């Protein structure tokens, strides 16, 4: 009964101390970032506040490419980069749980058994040695009363760090997904270029045969034959260059999905490179809010603010309370009432009077850390707006550039066909054909390159907006 009363007294003191406790941390106010009301590069988009906890869909599925879908799933389960980020998040969560344990009393239990022979001639002895067995079972409870918020601010900081670790994991996942999609569309752009070059080699080969036949008939000169052979060999060489570049991209994708490059391959396939329509109405800032890097920067700033409270609390005395109890005997029943013992206390307080300026330096260090995190937060937000503006501009201007380049490629193709017809009819020499063929090939390759850039720009926009362009978005 006495032990029960002691425990009740300790719990009452603990509750009272927590209710009366204060925090030394400054009031937390995220810094102003001077975010714009609207985006400059497109009308109708507005700015808002972070919303990084919003769910993120499998945004790459909007491309409708089963191969890309499969690669993204493989990366999710096998990427070593993502596994490392997950391990760091688990570490941060474990640290937060460790810090939280300081909020509760520490209870230790133990026991010992000893066999002792006491001297009969010693102090209080009867002249006859005495041998006895001592048995002790008991426990202790130690608790620091958090009057100044040192422990609570430490827990808040650790939790914020864990939240930042979760945001880092989301950022790593988004970066992996976007990097994989970017590499995949570079690969498909190279597939399209290689297919174009193979078609071109066939066409150049027929042109070479024509010039050879005409040369044998005395109609064409040897110069024409050499020119035809030159453009044909050049086109073949470009196939090898594209193949080498494609192999490097394929190896890059293998590393992203956690596969060994030697055992990994993606079959070549020519697919339409047409990106989904980006949203041009609504509230894009609600998507920008989902950026995990902004969330991580904000949480680290909050943690730094809480650690100021931890450092400032060191200027005040610490107060701790102890409780011990158990049973002990050298004779008789161990669990009988006479064998019990307990103690409440000590109630101890420690205040450092002189430390050579250590506490002042720690407070200054924590404040400087907060200033650094606040500056990093502002930099992250401003960088996010810049990236969104860049991605919006790239999508808009590449769309116009793609239309113009397709027109240029079509016109160059007509010029090439007309030049070949004129050559067959004897109305021009082969230099005109070579020039037209070279221009047409360059224009067609440029058109393919721009379409691949458009796909990559769409991926960059998704990445800049924090993963996903939202539901019900309208395009133009």
Automatic annotation (TrEMBL):
The protein's matches in Gene3D superfamilies, at most eight in alphabetical order, are given as: Outer membrane efflux proteins (OEP)
Just give the chief location class: membrane
Which residues does UniProt call coiled coil? none
Mind telling me which residue stretches traverse the membrane in this protein?
Answer: none
Does Membrane show up as a keyword for this record?
yes
Gene Ontology terms, cellular component aspect? Answer: plasma membrane
> MF terms per GO, please?
efflux transmembrane transporter activity
Q: Name one Pfam family in it.
A: OEP
State whether keyword Signal applies: yes
Question: How is this protein positioned relative to the membrane?
Answer: Lipid-anchor
Signal sequence extent: 1-25
Keywords on record: Lipoprotein, Membrane, Palmitate, Signal, Transmembrane, Transmembrane beta strand
From the Swiss-Prot or TrEMBL record, state where the protein is found. Cell membrane
Q: Which family does it belong to?
A: Belongs to the outer membrane factor (OMF) (TC 1.B.17) family.
- Protein name in the entry: RND transporter
Species the sequence originates in:
Sphingomonas sanxanigenens DSM 19645 = NX02
């Amino acid at each position: 009964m006495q032990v029960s009363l002691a425990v009740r007294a300790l719990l009452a003191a603990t509750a009272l101390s927590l209710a009366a406790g204060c925090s030394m941390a400054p009031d937390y106010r995220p810094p102003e970032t001077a975010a714009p009301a609207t985006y400059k590069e497109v009308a109708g988009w507005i700015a808002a506040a972070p919303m990084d906890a919003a769910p993120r869909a499998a945004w790459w599925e909007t491309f409708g490419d089963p191969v890309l879908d499969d690669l993204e799933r493989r990366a999710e389960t096998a990427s070593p980069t993502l596994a490392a980020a997950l391990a760091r998040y688990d570490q941060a969560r474990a640290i937060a749980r460790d810090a939280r344990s300081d909020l509760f009393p520490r209870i230790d239990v133990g026991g010992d058994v000893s066999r002792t022979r006491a001297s009969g001639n010693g102090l209080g002895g009867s002249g006859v040695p005495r041998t006895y067995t001592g048995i002790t079972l008991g426990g202790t409870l130690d608790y620091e009363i958090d009057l100044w918020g040192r422990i609570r601010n430490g827990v808040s900081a650790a939790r914020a760090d864990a939240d930042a670790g979760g945001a880092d994991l989301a950022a790593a996942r988004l970066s992996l997904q976007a990097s994989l999609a970017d590499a995949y569309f570079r690969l498909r752009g190279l597939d399209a270029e290689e297919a174009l070059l193979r078609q071109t080699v066939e066409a150049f080969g027929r042109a070479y045969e024509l010039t050879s036949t005409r040369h044998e008939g005395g109609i064409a000169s040897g110069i024409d034959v050499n020119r035809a052979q030159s453009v044909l060999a050049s086109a073949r060489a470009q196939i090898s260059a594209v193949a080498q570049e494609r192999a490097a991209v394929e190896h890059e994708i293998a590393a992203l999905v956690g596969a060994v490059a030697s055992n990994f391959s993606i079959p070549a396939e020519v697919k339409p490179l047409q990106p989904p329509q980006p949203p041009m109405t609504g509230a894009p800032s609600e998507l920008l809010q989902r950026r995990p890097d902004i969330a991580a920067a904000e949480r680290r700033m909050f943690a730094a603010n809480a650690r100021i409270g931890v450092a400032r609390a060191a200027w005040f005395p610490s107060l701790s309370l102890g409780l011990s109890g158990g049973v002990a005997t050298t004779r008789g029943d161990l669990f009988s009432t006479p064998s019990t013992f307990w103690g409440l206390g000590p109630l101890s307080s420690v205040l450092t009077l002189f430390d050579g300026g250590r506490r002042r330096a720690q407070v200054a260090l924590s404040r400087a850390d907060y200033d650094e995190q606040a500056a990093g937060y502002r930099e992250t937000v401003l960088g996010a707006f810049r990236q969104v503006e860049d991605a919006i501009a790239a999508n808009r201007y590449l769309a116009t550039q793609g239309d113009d380049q397709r027109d240029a490629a079509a016109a160059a193709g007509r010029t090439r066909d007309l030049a070949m017809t004129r050559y067959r009819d004897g109305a021009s020499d082969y230099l005109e054909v070579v020039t037209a063929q070279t221009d047409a090939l360059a224009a067609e390759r440029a058109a393919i390159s721009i379409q691949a850039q458009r796909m990559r720009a769409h991926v960059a926009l998704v990445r800049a907006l924090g993963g996903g362009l939202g539901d019900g978005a309208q395009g133009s």
